[in-house]
Amino acid sequence: MHRSQLLFAAAVLFCLPENALAQSSPRIIHVFVALADNQHQGIIPVPAALGNGDDPARNLYWGAAFGVRTFFRKSPDWQEIAVIPSPTSAILERVVFRHRETGTLLVADAYRGSEIRQAMTDFFLAAAGLQPPEPLYTSALGKEKLQVPANASLVVYVGHDGLMDFPLPLDFAGRKQASREAIILACASKAYFSALLRSSGAQPLLWTTGLMAPEAYTLKAATDGWIAKETKEQIHERAAFAYAKYQKCGMSAAKRLFSTSW
């Protein structure tokens, strides 16, 4: 089992009360964030504090106002229930949020900016569902062995489109089952991510056709629609509306920026 996925499942387990574990398993969203990094990524440079890939607290994609952790932490729809510092050498911080109304869990990992290749690799492995089917872990709240699935129903990548800079030689051995969905908030992700995503067996829920700011308001809007079990068209509309609002661009341009299909 890939170590990142093992720690992900363990974090989910340790944050759930025992009565919640006794109920049906909640849906899980796993977000892989490659921290913005002026030094190690081919991005247009941002202010030094925002582009320090070793400082999640102030990073553009994590701790800044529209970063994943800050934005979800301030949302009344979500409750931050765990913070795990440095679960791996590549991941500087992991946070776990619970959706207040539905119990959906969102686990977000802040990858060191220099580890963008690892962040993208882990995203594609999660998209392919490359984990053992029935891992067992011990609850932190008791001695009972409880079975918790590591697989997320929705996997998300947020950050620079590293495939513009380097290839990822991944082989998913012809996995074709459409068992999970993916959101990819990175520049021109439909063009650059499509081959690997298709081979992983995952299906696109939302990705992009051009340059964009991968900030958390778009992710929040899209996950709101996914949690509500809306159609792809409705999720597309939500995402475009949020992007147009925060970027102060026209709705038509925002709708063209996003796609939900191959």
Strand order of the largest sheet: 2-3-4-1-7-8-9-10
Helix count from the secondary structure assignment = 8
Query: What's the mean pLDDT score?
Result: 86
Query: What series of H and E elements makes up the topology?
Result: HHEHEEEHEEEEHEHHHE
- Helix percent reads 25-40%
How many domains? The number is 1
- Major beta sheet, specifics? 8 strands, mixed
Radius of gyration: 17 Å
The number of E-state strands comes to 10
Q: Note the gap between the termini.
A: 29 Å
The secondary-structure class comes to alpha/beta
Low-confidence stretches: 4-23, 132-148
User: So what's the overall shape?
Assistant: globular
Strand-residue proportion: 15-25%
Task: Describe the structure in your own words.
By secondary structure, the chain is α/β, with parallel strands linked by helices. The chain is globular, with a radius of gyration of 17 Å. 32% of the residues lie in helices and 21% in strands. The chain has one domain. The protein is built from 8 helices and 10 strands. It starts with a helix and ends with a strand. A hairpin with a 6-residue loop joins β5 and β6.
